[in-house]
Write a structure and sequence with these properties.
The complex is a heterodimer. Chain A is α/β, with parallel strands linked by helices. Chain A has twelve helices and 13 strands. Chain A has helices spanning 37-52, 67-70, 89-99, 111-116, 119-128, 172-179, 192-204, 230-236, 286-299, 316-320, 332-335, 339-349; strands at residues 59-63, 80-83, 104-110, 132-138, 141-142, 148-149, 183-188, 208-214, 237-239, 241-246, 261-265, 271-276, 302-309. In chain A, β11 (261-265) and β12 form a beta hairpin. The longest helix of chain A has 16 residues, at 37-52. In chain A, 53% of the residues are buried. By secondary structure, chain B is of the alpha/beta class. Helices cover 39% and strands 19% of the residues of chain B. In chain B, the strands form five sheets. In chain B, strands 10, 11, 12, 13, 14, 15, 16 and 22 form an eight-stranded mixed sheet that branches. In chain B, strands 3-4-2-5-6-7 form a six-stranded mixed sheet, with helices on both faces. A five-stranded mixed sheet of chain B has the order 19-21-20-23-24, with helices on both faces. The chains are: A alpha/beta, B alpha/beta.
């Protein structure tokens, strides 16, 4: 009975390849400080999830405690989220993925939550190669408790009060590579293009993605003498590659020169293209990655890029050899063996 | 060869005439790591197969090899399977402890010892039997390497002959023990026969103790509580197990791995479960909570130190309302304490585990059968009430061998609690995670991955309103805490009810729980027979306390709360629950030595407190 002609298409909002608008990926209003790097990261997450056409209902957002860990409330309201306890998000994420292997786990942590209180769970998450995107929103200080150093603060970095950090930093990327994470990189909250590309590739990866994103704390660690300030990062950033990403649902139309560009075919068929800015760097070589990271520290560089990728290693879930459907929703017929099984077990004990 | 046997002086003549049948405890003192476990199991099973009620308790050191260990088998015609304080028959295989072991025996007990130890010189009021083990073993075991292990089988033969345990049953028990290893079975059987033949030819029976065939064990099984719990969890539909090894809980998960591999892997080779060894107890419970949040039936097993570590996460699960099952196989604390001894010392800490106003449901099994059945109850309660449920077993129950009726197949279906599906959400349009729609304090939840735009909610351990949004409002906080309390009150009517055993017009009540049960039922008979004290008995099976507990205390002038800890922990919980006038009726009997509770200790203390 509709006689009204269709509205002109131009007024309809843009949608991604699963028919959702960017609004469908929005979260609550942020309560972090204006200019906080974490808000920029939330924006990039929304962008990447939208561009990749990830159904928000498939995503589980997980976090620990701290400013960074609050941020899952500020993106993707249509995804379940779990703001757990300080430094223990990795175990909660692991449990969630055991229960439902079809989820896409997105963990958001901070430098204190990961490298100080959470270092124990962090290293074990890395060695399991659980499918998860683990983001460290790294500003070198505790924001919520007003600016104490965390374990990623650089040697000699200065607090607002003038206190100097006299302990060496933990390099979470080196650790992650050493322990078995299969997609490890560092980016900067201010580098839209690089971070967005890396996040899209992360979504396409099957295994542990560890992204250390330097994300300046405008309130407590953005001053002269800090090594995690906007200015310091801009002045000292060295980038390993220029990245581009071709998702699996798009035709590959850009030619690349294998001499200057590394092509990484991701688990879902997407392609990550890395145009080398350092000629000899091979992101599939763990030892080179760790050597380069160590050199960066010695030179005072903030090295960014994809340090290491391995698309062949089995994930933790692959190794557990579980049924395809989520354990969480298996019917009783599959989880409670029959009477004859109990009878057999009893007979063995008589 | 038997010339070193010494007839007890003084009481010897009388002993010879007395005949005590199917009522004794046999203690084997050895060195751990010497393979005596097989010998002791064979002895236990042989008596069991003769239809005589038995129990086996291993008193072992926190050590892999080289330290003393004692295994006690109690055979009792009346079905008392708790620890008996007195040892009637000592098998002294450990030179290091032999003197102390002998000196601690009551007059009239028998001692079987390795000839070179010459223990018969120590006392003249015991019955001694010496055995030249090395000679006997050398004859049946040409391989010198194996002799140390086979030596322990020789005493099985000697004990069998002296106590009149049937050799056919011993052989059957050996065949079962070494089911797939025929050569080992034959070698061990030869050693048993060597011991039996030696005893027959060379030892003159003078003790009073005999095993005679009965018919009290037909159809029964022998199992430890941890294995029973493992089976129970498998049949409870558990899908995720995360754990960190700790004595005495490790064998629960290790046994479960075996059962799950056998019965929960489909024809396609795919598992309907995931079992993950975590890096510590913090991670173990974190995984339980993550999995419970995402909808799995998840569990871990631990002991006191693990419970302490889980404290922060336990509060998160309470406040964010996430199901999970934690088995606490209690051992002796504080701190590392005595890792291989039993206790009920985690009750109070677990009831309120974590900071803030936190409280938890606890189930307390007393037997292997309850370890099995409470597994299903624990998972159903955890999901029904969206909270952790702690199952408070202990080392005595978990690691020792218990006789049991075969377990009954669960009759209650798996209940997943209030979980909204995609279809429910389409009908409702949305939901508020912590809204108390039904007045029972329990809200409705959705699982991550539910394919509906209104399914998601934000789970947090920080203050929240009924929509699970962040809130610091005083009224939101208070409403939420009151609702959580309402939920806990609702749980009172759903947790397992106590078991109550009545005496004849008793004015005195006994309250106990867990493995104390076995000492209590025997002690009640002792109190009646020896002191004419009639008692009623209530066995707690859960916290929070049900209505029956209050009624029981109201009905008695004095109520003795018997427990295996120093500080009367359960009594303290009762005090919090009771009307002030009832509190004065409670008396504490505490047992604190790390050994399973024995009846005699309870009888002595209670009768004294009653002025007898």
């Amino acid at each position: 009975m509709a006689t009204t002609p269709a509205e002109p298409r131009s007024s309809e909002p843009k949608t991604n390849h699963i028919g959702l608008t960017v609004i469908d990926y929005k979260g609550g209003k942020t309560t972090l400080c204006a200019g906080c790097g974490h808000n920029a990261i939330s924006e990039r997450i929304i962008e990447a999830m939208y561009d990749m056409g990830v159904k928000p209902e498939r995503v589980a957002k997980l976090s620990g405690i701290g400013c960074s860990s609050k941020s899952p409330a500020y993106f993707m309201n249509r995804s379940h989220s779990f703001n757990s306890v300080h430094g223990r998000m990795p175990s909660v994420a692991t449990g969630a993925m055991l229960a439902n292997r079809n989820l896409i786990a997105l963990g958001v942590s901070g430098d204190g939550d990961t490298a100080s209180i959470g270092i124990g769970q962090f290293v074990h998450l890395m060695r399991r190669n659980l499918p998860i995107i683990y983001i460290i929103e790294d500003n070198g200080v505790y924001g919520l408790t007003k600016g104490q150093f965390s374990a990623t603060a650089d040697l000699g970095s200065k607090l607002k009060s003038g206190v100097l950090n006299d302990l060496p930093p933990i390099d979470t990327c080196t650790l992650a590579i050493q322990l078995g994470a299969t997609f490890v990189g560092r980016s900067f909250s201010g580098d839209k293009r690089q971070l967005s590309t890396m996040l899209k590739a992360a979504i396409a990866h099957n295994g542990t993605v560890m992204l250390d994103v330097v994300s300046p704390c405008v309130t407590f660690n953005d001053h002269e003498g800090s090594t995690k300030s906007y200015k310091y990062v801009k002045d000292h950033e060295e980038t390993l590659q220029e990245m581009s990403f071709v998702p699996h649902f798009e035709e590959i139309d850009v030619e690349y020169d294998p001499g200057t560009t590394v092509n990484v075919t991701m688990h879902d068929g997407s392609h990550l293209r890395l145009r080398k800015l350092e000629e000899d760097y091979d992101p599939t070589d763990r030892i080179q990655a760790m050597t380069r990271l160590t050199a960066a520290h010695d030179k005072g560089e903030v090295l960014t890029g994809l340090f290491y990728v391995n698309t062949k290693a089995p994930s933790f879930l692959d190794m557990l050899n579980m049924v395809d459907e989520p354990l969480a929703t298996l019917p009783e017929s599959l989880t409670r063996p029959g009477r004859q099984v109990l009878e057999a077990a009893m007979e063995e004990l008589r | 060869m038997a010339t070193t046997d010494v007839a007890p002086q003084g009481t010897g003549g009388q002993l010879g005439r007395k005949r005590i049948v199917n009522d004794m405890s046999i203690q084997v003192a050895t060195v751990n790591g010497s393979g005596s476990q097989s010998s002791n199991t064979v002895l236990l099973r042989a008596i069991f197969q003769m239809g005589v009620p038995v129990s086996g308790k291993n008193l072992f050191p926190s050590n892999i090899a080289g330290l003393p260990t004692w295994y006690t088998i109690r055979a009792n015609k009346d079905g008392y399977v708790g620890r008996k304080k007195e040892i009637d028959f000592l098998v002294a295989m450990n030179a290091e402890t032999a003197q102390d072991d002998v000196m601690s025996l009551a007059p009239g007990a028998s001692v079987l010892y390795d000839e070179p130890l010459a223990l018969d010189k120590l006392r003249n009021d015991l019955i001694f039997y010496s055995v030249p083990y090395d000679k006997l073993v050398a004859a049946v075991c040409p391989e010198a390497k194996l002799r140390k292990l086979v030596k322990n089988m020789v005493y099985v033969g000697v004990v069998a002959q002296l106590l009149a345990i049937e050799m056919d049953e011993v052989e059957k028990a050996i065949r079962k023990q070494f089911a797939k290893k025929v050569k080992a079975a034959n070698l061990n059987l030869a050693a048993v026969r060597a011991g039996f033949d030696y005893a027959k030819a060379s030892l003159q029976k003078r003790g009073a103790f005999y095993i005679e065939r009965m018919d009290e064990t037909a159809g029964k099984i022998i199992i430890d509580g941890n294995s029973a719990a493992a089976l129970g969890c498998m049949f409870a539909g558990c899908t995720v197990v995360t754990w960190y090894p700790i004595t005495p809980s490790s064998s629960l998960v290790e046994t479960m791995i075996e059962y799950m591999k056998e019965y929960r892997i489909g024809p396609d080779g795919k598992a309907t479960f995931a079992i993950v060894q975590a890096e510590d107890e913090l991670a173990a419970i974190g995984m339980v909570i993550g999995a419970g949040w995402a909808g799995a039936r998840s569990m871990t097993a631990t002991a006191g130190p693990g419970i302490s570590l889980m404290s922060e996460f336990a509060g998160l699960a309470y406040y964010a309302e996430i199901p999970g099952v934690i088995w606490d196989i209690q051992r002796v604390g504080p701190s590392t304490g005595l890792p291989t001894r039993t206790s009920q010392g985690d009750i109070l800490a677990t009831a309120f585990l974590s900071h803030g106003d936190t409280k938890h449901i606890m189930l307390i099994p007393n037997s292997a059968a309850e370890c099995f059945s409470m597994a299903s109850e624990a998972f159903n309660l955890a999901e029904q009430f969206q909270t952790l449920v702690f199952v408070m077993s202990d080392l005595d129950l978990g690691m020792n061998n218990w006789m049991s009726d075969p377990f009954e197949y669960p009759t209650t279906p798996i209940k997943r609690g209030k979980v909204l599906s995609k279809e429910d959400l389409t009908k409702l349009g949305g939901f508020a995670r912590y809204k108390d729609l039904d007045g029972d304090g329990v809200g409705y939840r959705t699982l991550p991955g539910t394919d509906h735009p209104a399914a998601a909610y934000f789970t947090r351990g920080s203050g929240h309103n009924d929509k699970s949004n962040y809130s610091e409002r005083p009224d939101d906080y208070e409403d939420n805490m009151e609702r959580l309390n309402r939920k806990f009150e609702t749980a009172r009517s759903f947790v397992p009810r106590p078991e109550i055993l009545k005496g004849a017009n008793a004015k005195i009540g006994i309250i106990a729980y867990g493995t104390s049960h076995w000492g209590i039922i025997e002690s009640r008979d002792q109190l009646r027979n020896e002191y004419a004290i009639e008692t009623d008995y209530l066995r707690l099976r859960a916290y929070p306390f049900t209505r029956e507990v209050h009624e029981f205390i109201e009905q008695h002038e004095r109520v003795y709360v018997v427990e295996q800890n120093r500080d009367a922990q359960m009594l303290s919980l009762l005090k919090l629950d009771l009307k002030p006038e009832l509190i004065a009726r409670l008396r504490s009997i505490s047992h604190l030595d790390g050994l399973p509770l024995d009846a005699r200790s309870v009888t002595d203390e209670l009768s004294t407190m009653e002025g007898k």
